[in-house]
Amino acid sequence: MKRTVKMLVCILVSAVCFPLLNLTAGDETPIFGFTAESSRAERQWEEKFKEIPKQENLRAYMERLSARPHNVGSPYDKENAEWIAAKFKEFGLETQIENFDVLFPTPKERLIELVGGAPYFKAKLQEPALPEDPTSNQTAEQLPTYNAYSIDGDVTGPLVYVNYGVQEDYEELERRGISVKGAIVIARYGHAWRGIKPLVAGEHGAIGCIIYSDPRDDGYTSGDTFPKGAYRPKDGVQRGSVQDSAVFMGDPLTPGYGATPDAKRVAIKDAQTLTKIPVLPISYADAQPLLEAMSGPVAPRMWRGGLPITYHLGPGPAKVHLKVASNWDIKRLYDVIGKIPGSTNPDEWVIRGNHHDAWVNGAEDPISGMVAVMEEARAMGELAKQGWKPKRTLIYCAWDGEEPGLLGSTEWVETHVEELKKHAVVYINSDSNGRGFLGFEGSQTLEKFMNDVARDVQDPETKLSVWKRSQLEAIRHAGSAEDRREARTRSDLRLDMLGGGSDHAPFNNFAGVAALGIGFGGETGGGIYHSIYDDFYWYTHFGDTDFSYGKALSQVGGTAMMRLADADLLPFEFGDFADDVQMYVKEVKKFAGEQQEEVTERNRQIDEGAYTATADPKQTYVPPSKEEVPPFINFAPLDNAVEKLNKSAEEYKKALNAANANGGAILAKASLGTLNEMLIQSEHKLTTPEGLPGRFWYKHELYAPGAYTGYAAKAIPAVREALEQKKWKQAEEAAARVARVLQNEATLISEAAAKLNAQSR
To answer: How far apart are CA 362 and CA 535, in angstroms?
Structure first.
């Protein structure tokens, strides 16, 4: 660097870090939820905790856990669970393994071949071992490349290219007069969860689905491919589950209840979450001959991937034969559960988790997160030996079966759901971890809490707080001037909504437990996701190579666990929460208005003949039919509920400020048990017993994975999805139902404020 640049960096680091360090040393401001006295003790224990995690331990754990393939039902999966349990016991945790028996199909026959309209070609459907990568040759133990929960099928048909295979792609094909009925579709990975692709294809009449990894998305377009670089090589394949997660998560044969050995199971033929058409994943090496054999219109510019070919839409002339057959077996899960009992409030549980199963060796996904959680648990045990006693019970979990569909966590939650509703304070999840920026998502009642934690942990590379580094990244990637202004000026970074895709989902979506997801990333890059190359060699060359961000994750997770365990008053906060809810309501109202404008404009264009000609005379567009303009939807109940929510949040803030006066002297004297019980119930209030329309398992009314997004969350999902599906009456009914939920939440917050005020008298 030039001298002037060095000086500027030093000034920036000093300005940001010194207040952080002085705050820690001087205890000037009590931690949210603590009195001045308890905050001083807490900070001392936290500083001791942060010194305990060791990078060399993280590396050693990963080398052991990722040494062999450990998918559900494999011998090494069971060995890993037993090894983690032994480690937890060694760390001082009371530990047991809980078993569940679940449906987990594995492939016995896979075939994709060109059989007509082009020279014969048979896809390899296999990832080759690489001499540089010592565990990539464990062929006998590796799961073949496949999509779990695809139905068996043997189909032949013309091939149609459907881009990412989401609804808007089919709308584009329809405008071009192209049908997938009776065809096999080929879609590229990305833009939506993989299970959406066969779901939407089947709904449009396709008889089979092929999903491939295009080099534009995670291959050589992004960087050098493995083993030279981090990105997906030509023969790399993404395995993964394709069960219909919009219905429910977990074991397909035990919907909504635990898959204990004696549980009643539905017949496989009646399982709701299996695909309706057969599906297989392939590499871009296998995809290229299939795509080259197609003709028809040239794909739109945004549909064209990174292969050195002309992308055509089809259908045909190539015909493809697709065959899938699986062993539909029941496999045993091994969930590891370790506890440190609470000293004064043992019936209040703070839960931490990460999964231990993988599609193959799984160094990045999930072991990079699992080893951080293990080292965090070790540090907690060390603190306990030094005399620290958490007030609340800490529970550390290593879940099995996450990859096929959150099996281990879901079955555990479904089995213990009534206990969790009474005792669970918060669940904190991690999954993959890498070099980069702290990402945090979760229940917005914990937004202030999580921001405070992030301000008190140092980034290992920049020496800024991990919060400041995330804020700078948010400013850099802001999508608009307003987003940039908010990232600079809002006191707390917004927590992203929780969706699906990892083990937080059953806690939040089904049980209504407040939840957080934390992990570092953004600078690792890579394209080895769910392949045989996600292993120790790749991670130590291209991931968090020195495990410094694994240590940072242990520090972030452990700090959050300690504060939740020891807080005098649980650190739920409702100002940020109310602000987020108000934003969600504005967004859904704006979407409703945009739909009205869109339909009106499209009808106008149809009247004026705008769809009678195209730029390409060889392509015939089919004009859409005119639609009924959406009716007025009464959002007044939602607006009124938001107003009441803002008012109650302000009441709680004033009560909290009064209680915190004079170093929290009132909190120190108060009996807070009943108040904390009320705060624990604040997330449950956001659920309804019947769940979302047609989706009984998803009970949270504020956010849930979209029915056609997979992992990605939608705010106020019942209203939003009714609007998207043009079910206007259902949207208005859902708005009224969500308003009642928010009114109940506001009432609870006001009652908590009154309870807190009563302690101050």
So the answer is: 6
Quote the CA–CA distance of 697 and 538 in Å, as a whole number.
37
User: Which residues have a catalytic role annotated?
Assistant: 402
**Beta-strand runs (E) in 165-265:** 184-188, 208-212, 240-241
Q: In whole angstroms, what is the distance from residue 185 CA to residue 179 CA?
A: 10
Query: Could you give the CA distance from residue 517 to residue 412 in angstroms, rounded to a whole number?
Result: 18
Helix (H) or strand (E) holding 409: helix 407-415
Which is nearest to 226 in space by CA: 143, 127, 304?
A: 127
**Of 347, 355, 352, the residue nearest 420 (C-alpha):** 347
For residue 740, give both structure tokens.
């009642």
Q: What is the pLDDT of residues 451-502, one digit of tens each?
A: 999 999 999 999 999 999 999 999 999 989 999 999 999 999 999 998 888 9
Domains of the chain, start order:
3-99+335-566 (3.40.630.10), 103-330 (3.50.30.30), 575-760 (1.20.930.40)
Q: What is the mean pLDDT of the chain?
A: 92
Q: In which residue are the tokens 């949040």 written?
A: 649
CB 611 within 8 A of CB 626: no
Q: Name the DSSP class of 716.
A: S
pLDDT at 621: 56
The sign of the torsion formed by the CA atoms of 476, 528, 278, 265 equals negative
Question: Rounded distance, CA 333 to CA 183, Å?
Answer: 38
Q: CA 169 to CA 183: how far, in whole Å?
A: 16
Distance CA 658, CA 636 (A): 33
Pairing of strands 147-148, 240-241: parallel
